[in-house]
Amino acid sequence: MAHYGSLETQRVLDDVRDIRGTTVRGSKGEKLGTVDDVIFDHDTMEIRYLIVDSDGWLEAGTFLLPADRVSGDENHEDGLATEVTKERIEDSPQFDKKSLDTDKAWKWKKFEQLFKKYWEEAPVMHMKGSDRIITPPEEPAPAQASSAGGASRGSGSLVDAAKLFPERITDVFSDPAPGAGKVTLRPKSVARAEEAASGVTLLKPRWWEAFENYLRLNKDDIQAKCSQCSSKAA
To answer: Which of the residues 24, 66, 110, 131 has the least number of beta carbons within 10 Å of its own beta carbon?
Structure first.
């Protein structure tokens, strides 16, 4: 079972950008707060939630944001952005840091179930700077084969092999020019950008990825300071 924890007062090396202290802004550029801490999976070291200090506008003081609701801020390279509104945050289940305590695992589990349900009930996002709704792309319809075993001539369309096998390498082709009858390799960076544009995922800044990598490199040290991880290892 995955165990989540936060950094609390643990320091990060000076050559690594610490996510804590990063400004989080809303869709209109308004400041929602600053990252106070991160909650991450102690097995994968993947950040799952941000603990954000509201800087006073929220009565509870801090609030929790799912990591998949946050992206890099297009207008501020050193910041983060989200389409989540203050009203949505105010109505979300209130986070209690004590729920992450080792001896209260049941409390965190109960809270997370409630928290996930709240955010999953409203998965619709809007394109930044517009009223356009972003929705995940529909699954492609299965290709219909003709009785002769070829592509369906009645529909007037052919099956594009490049779409069926996007990860195949193209070294076997002498002509590198793309075509419907050829299989091409789509770079991972392009794939991630396309997914973000369609609403499937939100792109994180490079320093976010570097920070997660830092957590992975220091996994043993982090787990050694966690009583729950230590008890599992024993």
So the answer is: 131
